[in-house]
Amino acid sequence: MDVLRTPDDRFVGLHGWPYEPHYVELADPDGGAALRMHYVDEGPADGPVVLLLHGEPTWAYLYRKMIPGLVDKMSPGGTLPTGDLGQALKGFDFGSVLGS
Predict the structure, then answer these.
(1) Domain span at residue 12?
(2) Residue 60's Cα: distance from chain center in Å?
(3) Looking at the whole model, is its pTM more than 0.70?
(4) What span, in angstroms and rounded, lies between the C-alpha atoms of 89 and 35?
(5) Domain count, the chain
(6) Residue 61 within any structural domain of the chain
(7) Domain contains 35
(8) Inter-residue contact 57 to 32 (CB < 8 Å)
(9) Residue 39 domain-assigned?
(10) Peptide bond preceding 57: is omega within 30 degrees of 0, i.e. cis?
């Protein structure tokens, strides 16, 4: 699978985004390179999980003003592999995942 990645240095010092990057690697079922997916991990580790999903072409930056209000109740939240802090699948059709 072809993968695109925005260079990490594009996110250094980004206004309104003080969150440390965290990643999980998703295996390619076809045996290719793993896909890196970004997630936000703020708040208490034993707190309930708040999952904030965004659409394409947005990324987790969309939630930058919501996260501080949730941080007392929040554990990891994910982002979709759309080319933000994670990676994007070149030519990937999210409609096929959503059944549309």
Answers:
(1) 8-24+56-74
(2) 6
(3) no
(4) 8
(5) 1
(6) yes
(7) no
(8) no
(9) no
(10) yes
